[in-house]
Design a protein that fits this description.
By secondary structure, the protein is α+β, with helices and mostly antiparallel strands. Helix content is 62%, strand content 7%. Strand 4, helix 10 and strand 5 form a beta-alpha-beta unit. The N and C termini lie far apart (70 Å).
């Protein structure tokens, strides 16, 4: 709590203002109101709470009351109301400005952190203000839903409250970026990101969450964040249905697409002949996808595609005739499955290769 003499300095001129207004029965002048607002502004910058300051103003008004008689005393309450209101307005104005400045500082830090900008040493120093020790490994989880989210949204506040209630003051940072919810946690605290994923999935009405791997150092957050974003992009292109994706489980896909030209050549040479089929290549690619996803069980693949087993068998035979590769043969199966994955990653045949 602030010392009494500290509070008193923000009451300077207050008693004379009350006396002047009560003696003449007038309202406070514009200059008097502005002076009180300025006092409130300075008190807020000094970190003194409004409740303590209002109590001090009421106490000072009691002292003024003892010096007033008759109509002048009757006017005191109205004058105090004006004075305290102006003082509180200045105090709240300063608080709002401070909050906006803090939000701007936090947003600038988040942007620098997630894009790897700024000097590493300076970034690590700033990170400590937000509870992160960038000398340690960190992992990032990213959640996206049917609509964009920002820091002040109810969804964001709800997820943050759940994390705080569960994990207290652990070194966790929850924020938003480009409409997505982002949680940054120490690399060894997998329970934090798993809990975040559960809460975010529910809060975003079934949104999807991707969790990057833990990486050390200042650049570790950027690396993990990019892995999570890539996992979300892969989920969209590969039509993955899991609500929570782990980048560590999807490492095969970046490997397959590292040489894009080689993958495009594979897709063209293996699956290109499917374009000769009635209806184009897409129905047969969907057939292969369902067949491989079900462990090459034709009956289950047919059920997923709402086909009869006979129709499914016919499609598989048609694929063999057009491509020269048999989906039932282990060697051919690997080639076909790799090509199908490549087609989904490259969005073929919708996009020309």
């Amino acid at each position: 709590m602030a010392e009494p003499d500290t509070v008193e300095q923000y009451l300077e001129g207050y008693a004379p203002i009350l006396m002047g207004a009560c003696t003449t029965g007038r309202r406070l002048t514009r200059d008097e109101l502005e002076a009180l607002r300025a006092q409130g502004d300075r008190a807020a910058e000094a970190g003194i709470g409004l409740r303590l300051l209002v109590r001090a103003h009421l106490s000072a008004a009691q002292s003024v009351r003892g010096e007033l008689r008759g109509p002048a005393a009757d006017h005191l309450l109205a004058a105090v109301e004006q004075a305290v209101d102006a003082f509180a307005e200045g105090h709240e104005r300063a608080q709002r400005l401070a909050i906006r400045q803090q939000e701007a500082t936090r947003r600038e830090f988040i942007d620098d952190l997630l894009h790897g900008r700024s000097d590493a040493g300076r970034l690590a120093e700033r990170a400590e203000r937000f509870g992160l020790l960038l000398s340690h490994a960190h992992a990032v989880a990213v959640a996206e839903g049917p609509e964009p989210y920002d820091d002040g949204y109810a969804v964001t506040r709800g997820v943050e409250s759940s994390l705080t209630a569960r994990f207290g003051d652990r070194r966790i940072l929850l924020t938003t970026k480009n409409g997505r919810l982002i949680c940054i946690a120490p690399g060894g605290q997998t329970d934090v990101l798993s809990f975040f994923a559960k809460q975010a999935h529910a809060a975003t009405d079934g949104g999807r969450v991707a969790i990057g791997r833990a990486h050390p150092g200042v650049g570790g957050v950027v690396h993990s964040y990019e892995e999570a974003l890539n996992a979300l992009d892969l989920a969209t292109r590969m039509h993955l249905e899991a609500p929570v994706l782990h980048a560590s489980d999807l490492l095969v896909y970046p490997v397959l697409t590292r040489d894009r030209q080689a993958m495009a050549d594979l897709v063209r040479s293996v699956l290109g002949p499917l374009q000769e089929a009635r209806g184009g290549a897409q129905p047969l690619i969907d057939t292969l996808t369902a067949y491989f996803d079900t462990g090459c069980v034709a009956a289950e693949a047919a059920r997923r595609l709402s086909l009869s087993v006979r129709a499914m068998t016919y499609r598989l035979e048609r694929i063999r005739q057009l491509t020269g590769a048999d989906p039932g043969d282990p060697v051919d199966r690997y080639t076909l499955q790799t090509a199908v994955i490549g087609a989904r990653l490259l969005d073929w045949p919708e996009q020309a290769l």
